[in-house]
Write a structure and sequence with these properties.
- Helix content is 33%, strand content 23%.
- The chain is of the alpha/beta class and 281 residues long.
- The protein has two domains: 128 residues, D-Maltodextrin-Binding Protein, domain 2, CATH 3.40.190; 146 residues, D-Maltodextrin-Binding Protein, domain 2 (3-Layer(aba) Sandwich).
- Strands 1, 2, 3, 4, 5, 6, 7, 8, 9 and 10 form a ten-stranded mixed beta sheet that branches.
- The longest helix has 14 residues.
- It starts with a helix and ends in an 11-residue tail after the last helix.
- Helix 9 packs across helix 12.
- It is built from twelve helices and ten strands.
Length: 281
């Protein structure tokens, strides 16, 4: 993302927590300082948005963990040693259960390239990781034994703490009728009312604000015209919220410092969509 802001790269897939941190000169952008970070973040614009995955707990059926209520005292695989996934997993676990990593349960970290091995070799009793439908990590784990996925309980999801969290930078709501998810052998989704509820990491296709208007419009229009084709070629794409403009789903507006590129706004509106005023440049 910093390369895009500095004009070294034209396009990047960006979780929206990153522009927020850059604009504050925080996290991985602390060395930039707030003034320079804000300046660079001001160079960024969005063409369209998508989910990087939901987040919830899941476990092998052979495990003693049968949901959120069983995590205390257990080993929980919750992401790589650094990064958004680990922070999100810890925050979500705290909201749902009140438990703290290192005190109430033992977090287990592994790099993404080693994650499936870490899951299948018994290093953890449960996983709190990003989830797609279908998800390659879940699919590969299920090849070694059945697994069950547990969404966030409805009362917790609708509670004040979770609703506040869903409005934090780079986070959106992921609500999906389980009946719309294609069944997989060895994978069960245990949803109390047939609905998947979880937070999701959200982001989008990010360019510089000075990208040519017609190029930005053409790139965005191409995506809009092919949403159905993407879902047909890759089943998980049906649930990543391509084509959504609702800020509650996309993570636009609010604390997110970047807005749609003017060319992207034109493409959306030409396709018959209404772009929220708060997301316009």
């Amino acid at each position: 993302m910093q390369n895009v802001a500095e004009g070294k790269t034209d396009v990047a897939a960006v979780p929206f927590i990153l522009p927020f941190l850059m604009s504050k000169g925080a996290g991985p952008y602390a060395k930039l300082g707030k003034e320079k970070g804000a300046e660079l973040a001001g160079n960024l614009a969005v063409l369209y948005t998508y989910r990087f995955g939901g987040m919830s707990v899941w476990s092998c059926d052979s495990s003693s963990v049968k949901g959120w209520g069983d995590l205390e005292g257990k080993k929980v695989i919750n992401g790589p040693p650094r990064g958004a996934a680990l922070s999100n997993a810890r925050a979500l676990t705290k909201i749902v259960t009140g438990l703290t990593d290192g005190e109430d349960y033992q977090g287990v970290q592994a790099n993404w390239g080693q994650m499936v091995k870490t899951i299948t070799d018994g290093s953890g009793d449960a996983m709190v990781l990003p989830i797609y439908f279908p998800d390659i990590r879940v699919t590969r784990a299920a090849a070694s034994g059945s697994v069950t996925l547990y969404p966030v309980p409805k009362d917790v999801f609708e509670g004040a703490a979770m609703q506040k969290y869903l409005k934090s930078p780079g986070t959106g709501a992921f609500i999906l009728d389980v009946g719309r998810i294609k069944p997989q052998d060895g994978v069960t989704i245990q949803a109390e009312d047939g609905v998947w509820r979880s937070p999701a990491t959200v982001g989008g296709e990010v360019v510089r604000t000075d990208m040519d208007f017609e190029l930005a419009r053409a790139l965005t229009a191409a995506m809009i015209a092919n949403v159905d084709a993407y879902a047909a070629k890759a089943p998980f794409m049906a649930h990543v919220a391509l084509g959504e403009l609702d800020p509650a789903v996309t993570g636009m507006c609010g604390p997110n410092p970047i807005r749609y590129h003017p060319g992207a706004v034109a493409a959306w509106e030409e396709a018959g969509h209404k772009v929220p005023d708060c997301a316009k440049p």
